[in-house]
Design brief:
Elements (H helix, E strand, L loop, with lengths): L2 E7 L4 H8 L1 H4 L1 E9 L6 H7 L3 E5 L4 H15 L3 E5 L6 H6 L4 E5 L11 H8 L3 E8 L9 E8 L6 H24 L3 E3 L5 E3 L9 E2 L7
Parallel strand pairs: 1-2, 1-4, 2-3, 4-5
Antiparallel strand pairs: 5-6, 6-7, 7-10, 8-9
Helix pairs in contact: 1-7
């Protein structure tokens, strides 16, 4: 494996679990998972069973939470931090991992940045939605985009039905992005935009086109 990664999880941890399951294929070794109070209760045991350190933090004291989150992740000295997290990272932490933190957002950025990406996409009446994986900077959902998945919206969609279709594309896209980082193929053009070296950008629903997880 080429990289060690930390994962920050707020919910069920489906993408983290997939990254653990596919770690040989992504060439990214999960070394740490940071959980919060509402994260799935079985994730501590799941991490332990897979040889991954787990830390669960209570976000109700924001000052303590931010300080501990920053300390734990900086001390981990990982190569990559992957977020499926409902918390904004402290600036000190973002600065400690420049170009090494990626975030999953359930909408097509720059549209519907912030919370409730799926619900706001449906409420807006747009006909196409999707998901974005981007690098994290010190501004919410504003970092350079790595990859996006496009999903049609049906007239009778609910957050659950639409979200399930988004996830079917999001999981392989997430795993593919991990692999691109492990392979050292994430570069930047002259405008600072992220480009995946030698990738194809011509065929939706996932752009760049999936290679190892199609």
């Amino acid at each position: 494996m080429s990289l060690c990664a930390a994962f920050c999880v707020s919910g069920h941890g489906s993408l983290f679990r997939a990254a653990v399951r596919e770690r040989e294929q992504t060439r990214v070794k999960p070394a740490l998972v940071v959980l919060e109070t509402k994260s799935a209760a079985d994730l501590d045991a799941f991490a332990d069973a897979n040889g991954i350190a787990a830390v669960r933090l209570d976000p109700r004291d924001r000052v303590f939470f931010d300080a501990e989150l920053t300390r734990v992740l900086i001390e981990a000295r990982v190569d990559l931090v992957a977020l499926t997290f409902d918390r904004i990272l402290p600036p000190t932490l973002v600065a400690a991992y420049p170009r090494k933190i990626i975030n999953v957002h359930p909408a097509l950025l720059p549209a519907f940045a912030g919370m409730r990406g799926i619900e706001r996409t449906l409420e807006s009446g747009v006909r196409i939605g999707g998901a974005t994986i981007h690098e994290v900077i010190d501004a919410v959902d504003a970092g350079p985009i790595i990859a996006q998945a496009v999903v049609d919206i049906e007239p009778d969609d609910t957050a659950q039905s639409y979200g399930a279709r988004v996830y079917r594309l999001l999981e392989p896209m997430f795993l593919q992005v991990l692999r691109w980082y492990a392979d050292g193929r994430v570069i930047r053009d002259g405008a600072g935009r992220i480009v995946i070296r030698d990738a194809r950008y011509d065929v939706p629903p996932v752009v760049p086109v999936l290679e190892n997880f199609a």
